[in-house]
Write a structure and sequence with these properties.
By secondary structure, this protein is α+β, with helices and mostly antiparallel strands. The protein is built from ten helices and four strands. It binds glutathione.
């Protein structure tokens, strides 16, 4: 199909778009109840604020996990100033449209951060911006100056590529109300191409930007690492993830890091109870506040 030539594929036998799109019916699928074509808050709700310099409002999706992994890595590296409170934002319930949340992220998506470490609180939204903000602030996980351009390139690669994996492949393979061959084919093709990009890079480099583990690894691992480890969309077999051997090697290596294991648990409200730490306010919470401990009968 050639776009813009007047020879686009004729879709009229399946759907004829109206002249002006209007929001009339729910689109169906898993997120139909929260999707809207307008921005802004739907209700008044202040955000809670804890005692630490950093207030994170998030959920343990791949975009959320990359930030909690960085916080846990900073703390593990001895950066005590990186102590944080992590509050759960339940996007299925529409918490991202509360007025307090929209004040710190006008785009109504997790993760969002309030940095209260300076004189004036600063809001930071967009996971890539949060990673850079924290890594630059503390001078950790940026890699060498020599490799900075490469690190930034891969960090921004993730931000541009993952929507094809999550919003494209994941949506149509796992969440859409029906299985449609066209979008699944299109986005499986792109996802596999992206995995091949990573596989070739990781064949020549231990980490994505060079010899050092950086925020680019954290960002990419949260999506593509977890994908090849079989944690996203139940799609490991379908995408033949075993064939990306270098991505698998790197994914397992990062997965074994204790800070990564802790980061995955923060703001997690799904999965096994012992892996769910809905809120994190103290390092000891990993031992005492997981759902199996707070709610032993699982009721
Ligand atoms: N580019 C954004 C994407 C964030 C994003 O898509 N977050 C999703 C969860 S992974 C979300 O909050 N969705 C809620 C919604 O779309 O209403 C980032 O990296 O921070």
């Amino acid at each position: 199909m050639l776009l813009g030539t007047g020879k686009e594929t004729d879709m009229s036998d399946t759907y004829t778009p109206p002249e002006v799109w209007t929001w009339e019916a729910k689109s169906g699928g898993q997120f139909a109840n929260i999707n809207r074509p307008v921005a802004g808050p739907t209700h008044d709700k202040e955000l809670p604020v804890g005692k630490h310099p950093f207030q994170l409002y998030s959920l343990a999706t791949p975009n959320g996990v990359k930030v909690t992994v960085l916080f846990e890595e900073l703390l593990a590296a001895g950066v005590t100033e990186a102590e944080y409170d992590a509050w759960l934002i339940n996007i299925g319930e529409g918490d991202q449209f509360g007025s307090g949340f929209v004040d710190i992220n006008p785009n109504s998506k997790i993760p969002a951060l309030l940095d209260r470490s300076g004189d004036t609180p600063k809001r930071v939204f967009e996971s890539g911006a949060i990673l850079l903000h924290l890594a630059e602030k503390f001078g950790h996980f940026l890699g060498s100056d020599e490799n900075r351009a490469e690190m930034l390139a891969w960090l921004f690669w993730q931000m541009g590529s993952a929507p094809y994996l999550g919003g494209g492949f994941g949506h149509f393979y796992a969440y859409a109300p029906e299985k449609w061959e066209y979008p699944i084919n299109r986005f499986a093709m792109e996802t596999k191409r992206q995995l091949d990009v990573l596989n070739r890079r990781l064949a020549e480099s231990p980490y994505i930007a060079g010899p050092d583990y950086t925020i680019a690894d954290m960002a990419i691992w949260s999506w593509y690492g977890q994908l090849v480890l079989g944690r996203l969309y139940s799609a490991a077999t379908f995408l033949d993830v075993e064939s990306y051997e270098h991505v698998l090697r790197w994914a397992k290596d990062i997965d074994a890091r204790p800070a990564v294991q802790r980061g995955r648990m923060v703001n997690r409200a799904f999965g096994e109870p012992e892996t769910q730490l809905h809120e994190r306010h103290d390092a000891s919470d990993f031992e005492t506040k997981t759902q199996d401990k707070l709610n032993p009968k699982g009721g």
